[in-house]
């Protein structure tokens, strides 16, 4: 793969991270609960960090060791529940489910890009970004289960 093609992939990934940031900040304006708003602003900040990393990676180059991300657990909640439509006054659980769907799409986006590359730096970077998006999905699904099924006094 040539330098031009690799730069185009990075630019596309940067655009997707910007889109994710904007989406989460818009959702944060719609939700009524502070906890959900804080979670959305947090995940938006994570997407901004991804964008910043990708810009630095594109402009300076960090090599494959530049990304170190731990393994995420995929609970598959978003795969089994329909994403709600974004609207003002959404409940926290609905916001988390919507966010989990967005992270699922981002994970699939990076996996699909990685699948068209042979082994090498680009493929490794894309697989690591996919793993990072899966970690975000895991976090949103965790928040969803806590909001949808709150702990009771009985255990």
Brief digest:
This protein is mainly alpha-helical. The protein contains five helices and no strands.
Distance between the termini: 55 Å
Q: Helix and strand string, N-terminal first? A: HHHHH
CATH topology: Ferritin
Shape: elongated
Radius of gyration (CA) equals 17 Å
Total domain count: 1
Percent in strands:
under 5%
For the record, the CATH class is: Mainly Alpha
Helix coverage percent: over 70%
The structure class reads mainly alpha
Unreliable spans: 64-69
What's the total helix number?
A: 5
- Compute the number of strand runs: 0
Quickly give the CATH architecture: Up-down Bundle
User: What integer is the average pLDDT?
Assistant: 83
Major pleated sheet:
none
Question: CATH homologous superfamily, by name?
Answer: Ferritin, core subunit, four-helix bundle
Describe this structure in words.
This protein has helices spanning 3-30, 34-60, 77-80, 92-115, 121-148. It has one domain (3-148): Ferritin, core subunit, four-helix bundle (Ferritin). Helices cover 72% and strands 0% of the residues. The radius of gyration is 17 Å and the shape is elongated. The protein is an all-alpha fold. The protein starts with a helix and ends in a 7-residue tail after the last helix.
